Amino acid sequence: MAASRQLHLGAFMRPTTIHTGAWRYPGAFPDANFNFAHLKRFAQTLEQGCFDAFFMADHLALLNMPMEALKRSHTVTSFDPLTLLPALAAVTERIGLIATASTTFNEPYHVARKFASLDHLSGGRAGWNVVTTSNPDAALNFGLEEHVEHGERYRRGREFFDVVTGLWDSWADDAFLRDQEQGLFFDPDRLHVLDHRGEHFRVRGPLNVARPIQGWPVIVQAGASEAGRQLAAETAEVIFAATPTLADGQRFYRDVKGRLAALGRAPEQLKILPGAFVVVGGTPEEARAKRARLDSLVYYESGIAALSIALGHDASRFDPDGSLPEIPPSNASHSGRERAIALAQREGLTVRQLAQRLGGYAGLAMVGTAASIADQMEEWLLSEACDGFNVMFSHVPGGLDDFVGQVVPELQRRGLFRRAYEGRTLRDHLGLPRPANRFFPD
Amino acid sequence: MAASRQLHLGAFMRPTTIHTGAWRYPGAFPDANFNFAHLKRFAQTLEQGCFDAFFMADHLALLNMPMEALKRSHTVTSFDPLTLLPALAAVTERIGLIATASTTFNEPYHVARKFASLDHLSGGRAGWNVVTTSNPDAALNFGLEEHVEHGERYRRGREFFDVVTGLWDSWADDAFLRDQEQGLFFDPDRLHVLDHRGEHFRVRGPLNVARPIQGWPVIVQAGASEAGRQLAAETAEVIFAATPTLADGQRFYRDVKGRLAALGRAPEQLKILPGAFVVVGGTPEEARAKRARLDSLVYYESGIAALSIALGHDASRFDPDGSLPEIPPSNASHSGRERAIALAQREGLTVRQLAQRLGGYAGLAMVGTAASIADQMEEWLLSEACDGFNVMFSHVPGGLDDFVGQVVPELQRRGLFRRAYEGRTLRDHLGLPRPANRFFPD
């Protein structure tokens, strides 16, 4: 029985898990982010679980953290997403493949061509997570001494998007005749030369790749700032939201969906998928113990640094095994401080446990049995806080296998998630329309 | 029995065949350059034939030819090589994968990262064909009004190469400890920050990908100019040569190999593989008839344009079905004119046939039985005109299947080509050493 609304699930791979202690978890593959055999297995397992997409983050530099912390992080390296995802396309059949690519450190012709190629290679399964790149170290790898300022990054990003989508529309869907008898490979009347001349880019076109199978690969964004939300409302089809509580989720959902009507878009044309870190256990206690174990593997100094930032106060002098002391007022963000204090009280965490929680993963987490995680997901979906989730696994392969093996069947039993793919493209999975060609609307 | 020297064979895919009439040949797949199922089959067939590499050309714009000719050309579009080859890596085990990437229209950090990713994904099978891009239309897709001048392209290309190889050496081969117990993911003492500051590039590094399995992906070049030859002698490990005759091949081979000693390199460290267009028939007559059929499918006006350029004289007024008339002297290259006239006389070609030959493929061609093609290849190899070939197939799948099914076994019988892969990496296949890490020589 299908519920009136169903969840969409992306697997957020950064490149495998986001938790900084995950690679040390018992049974975890410490080289997973660099071992294609493992990554292939993960993608195939996710496809067995009918996930909408394998969603890959990107980094154009080492993460900017102190070396003492960096050397303990498995996220220090990862494959280029647009090199990994074509390989995964060749060993999967249905799952969508979303790659992150920066508009600040790329050329639109390359980005248009690579995503168009991936869409063709994969039979219409590509998605582009459009980011403007906030790591300032990336600029130093691309000839810039200073990071590009936020507003300028967004202006460039918007023009970049226009160029890329314009290039995707270079060819009408029926442009390629391939008439062997007449010797006509394409119809020149069904070819458009973009000839873009804007503030940031001059790109003549046309793209030397046929229009993507999906028209355009699915457009994904994650911006949470005002500029980011507005750009997403104008252009995105999926938003990767970072809403830590149900109330935050509902507010964000209302805000962004509310912007669509004025832009001539229907609410269904933009799916909002918050990130959700999941830890599955046979009992609630087992799940909590798993998470505690995972957090205990976080480098303590990294955790203390994260806690100090949250509190606006140096936490390194606190007794690690004591409870959080009273802290004098500071200029730190009140919400961060209040959340940290409330978290410590609610779960009865020591300073060490709180620090390692913040240094591991501090956003929305679902820790429990398959049934309780399904309850939470159902509540978010039915109370209009989301259209689904970008799931982040506690560790690989165990955490991924647990989710696919236990939570997915529970969601399916409740009619909240598909039991089989109905379509072939990522747009099919997400229920998104195929964009018309702006130059060949017929 | 292995001969004292053996051939190396690359399959040059542009993206499938270079001959402009190939897609119209009876039985040819007209959509081969855009159909992953076909491309996968080709790569797997080439791997069964023990080819050293699948070698993919690249174009950053439509080919710059008149629309009347362009619309008849199957080479108008192709996948981005660095998107296609990872997909082929996932469905093959041994064959090398060489992608063309331009130093004029890319950033070195991206190129270093993508090839390093491909090398890891493929188990050490990546090669980089370093090009400076001669199609002036490409500049218009990357914000430039005018094409970058030849000497400047080469200076930038050389610095680009230094940055990319420096980034590949960011990590010692043993840098990644992945010590789950101690929580140490890498050893910071085995990490080098490049901090390159040159005329064209400032790139801090390090690369956020481990050192490639091959140390560096194999470096391939095709430059034939003086600047191109010298750059190749300094940096290349494979040269894709364009030498139309045995004597040309021998001269080029002597010239380039002769430059190596002064650079401290051994002759074996640079393999010279001329492009060879092959047409296989059961008899010599059948092979010639196949080629004539193929040439007859070339758009006549394209052929006449090519012939006019070769002759330095407008050929469009000639009787297409007559023989080539006497032509008054001109300023055209003597060698091009003489070659065209000699070709027409040697093969008794009409104006139409000559034009279509030049408009199809006019370089080194081996047209005959498996035995006669093997004879030619053996002669080139043993007379030091090459170390092997980049084979260009007449059409796909037929021409490719003919070569793998008939010519490869003949070469194997003569001990001129491997019967099975002995190693796993492209360097293994080519007999090239693994480069030392310049920052961690131990």
From TrEMBL, chains A, B:
Q: SUPFAM superfamilies, per this entry?
A: Bacterial luciferase-like (SSF51679)
Annotated ranges, domain Luciferase-like: 19-380
Q: Name one GO molecular function term.
A: oxidoreductase activity, acting on paired donors, with incorporation or reduction of molecular oxygen
Instruction: Name the UniProt key words of this record, in alphabetical order.
Output: Flavoprotein, FMN, Monooxygenase, Oxidoreductase
| InterPro entries linked | Diverse_substr_monoxygenases, Luciferase-like_dom, Luciferase-like_sf, NTA_MOA
Q: Does the keyword Flavoprotein apply?
A: yes
Check the UniProt entry and state the signal peptide residues, or none.
Answer: none
Gene3D superfamilies xref list: Luciferase-like domain
Which residues make up the binding site for FMN? Answer: 58, 100, 150, 154, 225
Q: Does the keyword Oxidoreductase apply?
A: yes
Superkingdom field: Bacteria
**PANTHER family linked to this entry:** ALKANESULFONATE MONOOXYGENASE-RELATED, C2H2 FINGER DOMAIN TRANSCRIPTION FACTOR (EUROFUNG)-RELATED
Similarity annotation: Belongs to the NtaA/SnaA/DszA monooxygenase family.
What name has this protein been given in UniProt?
A: LLM class flavin-dependent oxidoreductase
| Species of origin | Teichococcus coralli
